[in-house]
Amino acid sequence: MITSNYSPNKALDTFENLSHEIYQELDNLSYLNDELFDYYCNELFYPDNEDEMIPEKCTPELLLELRQIVDDNQ
Fold this sequence. Notes:
66% helix
């Protein structure tokens, strides 16, 4: 019998954690640079539902990019 370490709940937790961190960085960015904040919101959220992030765009690399931008703009 083949078993897997993959758990749908673990994947969901990972996305929830990642999206939470991205939300925090976007919030920080909103105070520092309106243009960049608007750009990333347009990229990350569904056009018809601005409260829901596009999961495929929420990556660890994006989080690092946002953190760097926030650091550079402080």
